[in-house]
Structures are given as C-alpha cells and as structure tokens.
Amino acid sequence: MDKASARKLGLASLDWLLENQTIKEEKEQVLLDQLFSDSYWKEASSIAVIKPLPFEFNMNKVIEQGWREGKKMLVPCSRKERKLSFYAVYPETTFVSSTYGIDEPVGVTEFFDPIDLIIVPGVVFNQEGYRIGHGGGYYDRYLAQHEGKHVA
Questions:
Q1: Average pLDDT for consecutive 10-residue bins of the chain (152 residues)?
Q2: pLDDT on residue 11
Q3: Nearest C-alpha neighbor of 72 from the set 48, 52, 54, 53
Q4: Tell me, what's the pLDDT at 91?
C-alpha cells in the first residue's frame, strides 16, 4: 500500500474512532498505561507532545500527567521552512489555532533543548515504528537531528 492510500485509510479509522468515543477512550487508556509505565517516560524530565486535533489521540491527558509528575511539558510551534520549535507550557498557557488547525502556545518565550522524550504524532504506524503523518514532514526533519528518545 502506498503512503497516500495508507494515510487515507488511517484518517478514515481515526474518524471512525471519533464517532465511537467509548472505544477511542478504551484504546487511549491502554496506550496511556503503557506509556506511563515505560522507562522512557519515567526517566524523562522534559517531554514534547502535540496538542491534538479532535480525532487524534488525546495528548491533553499526557500533558496533565506530566505536570502532576513535575515534568517539563513542551508543545511545538511550526515555523518557516516547515520547522518546529518547542516551548514549555503550563496550566495557564494560552493556545491559538495555527494555519493547520493545531493549537500552539502563545505568549511563551522559553525554548527548551535538549528534549528527553518526544511523543511523535502520526496517522499510521507499523510494527517496525515507521510512521506516516499528515504529510508536511515537520517531525521527520526534526527527528533527523534530535539526539534524545522518541516514541510513537
């Protein structure tokens, strides 16, 4: 299956889950339990996540758990030339919708690097960890130079 077909199938599956919230929440809880018990999570003091679109995995729960555990939670902003910059966010941080409809923090100035753990978003994943995102290549470019750990 080519990338475009896989992306289309993945987005259709995510749309189905959005319409079936109970199943979506059950699947998310399984993944949350796995994440929070993983050594990557436990050892990380700074963790980067994306604010989710409605049909995506609810990363807000990850952000809140990170704050409860005293971790520095980071959210990206998209920049020129399809690049990402990550910023520390707090419960009082204000977000605005970007051109792509993704919430990005505003009024934040703290750039935080290195990042211990990046939780990489995607539309489709395989058993080997290969991911297909929305097609912009933002994370592919960032991960190519990132020396920390990442999970998807």
A1: 65 66 82 94 94 77 96 85 84 86 80 82 65 62 76 75
A2: 63
A3: 48
A4: 93
Show the DSSP H helices in the chain as ranges.
3-19, 21-37, 39-43, 60-68, 138-145
Q: What is the pLDDT of residue 10?
A: 64
Under 8 Å between Cβ of 123 and 52: no
Cα 97 from Cα 114, distance rounded (Å): 26
Both tokens of residue 145? 């130079």
How many Cβ atoms from other residues are within 10 Å of residue 96's Cβ? 11
C-alpha dihedral sign at 142, 60, 127, 133? negative
Q: Are 117 and 44 in contact (CB under 8 A)?
A: yes
